[in-house]
Amino acid sequence: EEVADMISKYNLAALPVVSEHGEMLGIVTFDDAWEVIEDEAEESSMRDTLVRLAFGAIGTLGFLVVYTIVVLQIVGMG
């Protein structure tokens, strides 16, 4: 993800991968980085959808609780 961010930020076609001793281990191309960026976007989208669904469910549950209390008050059971 860090490499994908660097490639995106600096608009690079590829980025070398080096060891802590400065030896070149390989390269990461734009295509490789793009796959990571797409995966991150999908994960983020799924998280956002789940959060919206959870808040929707909580809101619906809250409404049903209030509705039930009001109905019970009206029929004299509350």
Low-pLDDT regions: none
The Rg value, from CA coordinates, equals: 26 Å
Count of helix runs: 2
Structural class: alpha+beta
Q: End-to-end distance, in Å? A: 56 Å
Work out the number of β strands. Answer: 2
- Percent helix among the residues? 55-70%
> What general outline do the C-alpha atoms trace?
rod-shaped
Can you offer a commentary on this structure?
It is a single chain. The protein is α+β, with helices and mostly antiparallel strands and 78 residues long. Helices cover 69% and strands 14% of the residues. It has helices spanning 2-10, 30-74, and strands at residues 14-18, 24-29. Strand 1 (14-18) and strand 2 form a beta hairpin. Helix 1 (2-10) crosses helix 2 (30-74). The radius of gyration is 26 Å and the shape is rod-shaped. The chain starts with a helix and ends with a helix. The relative contact order is 0.10. The model has no long low-confidence stretch (mean pLDDT 81).
Core attributes:
78 residues, alpha+beta, rod-shaped
Provide a brief overview of the structure.
The chain is an alpha+beta fold and 78 residues long. The protein has helices at 2-10, 30-74, and strands at 14-18, 24-29. Helix 1 crosses helix 2 (30-74).
